[in-house]
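Work Package 4 report. The design task specified in the project plan requires that, given a folded chain encoded as structure tokens, an amino acid be chosen for each position. We show below one input record used in the internal validation round.
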């Protein structure tokens, strides 16, 4: 299994809601796109929304993980936020 995929839970826990701050490591959207199964989000969740950014969703360890990338340059990762997957329970009724 790819090392980046194995590191994602650590990344999600280590960098919650870094909105508006560049990530301390160089993870570009191109790297993410090629190595991580994800869903493209049409819009970012409200706490992460902002101009010049886009979001992708993954699931891991009973969490919904949203990765936020800048639209600028190499499209670096600028934030990660996780929410418990049980937020979806009401949708399953």
């Amino acid at each position: 299994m790819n090392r980046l995929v194995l590191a994602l839970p650590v990344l999600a826990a280590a960098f919650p809601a870094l909105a508006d701050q560049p990530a301390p490591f160089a993870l570009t959207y191109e790297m993410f796109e090629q190595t991580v199964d994800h869903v493209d989000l049409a819009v970012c969740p409200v706490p992460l929304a902002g101009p010049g950014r886009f979001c992708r969703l993954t699931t891991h360890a009973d969490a919904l993980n949203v990765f936020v990338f800048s639209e600028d340059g190499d499209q670096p990762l600028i934030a990660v936020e996780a929410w418990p997957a049980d937020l979806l329970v009401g949708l399953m009724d």
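The radius of gyration is 13 Å. Validation will be extended to a larger panel in the next phase.
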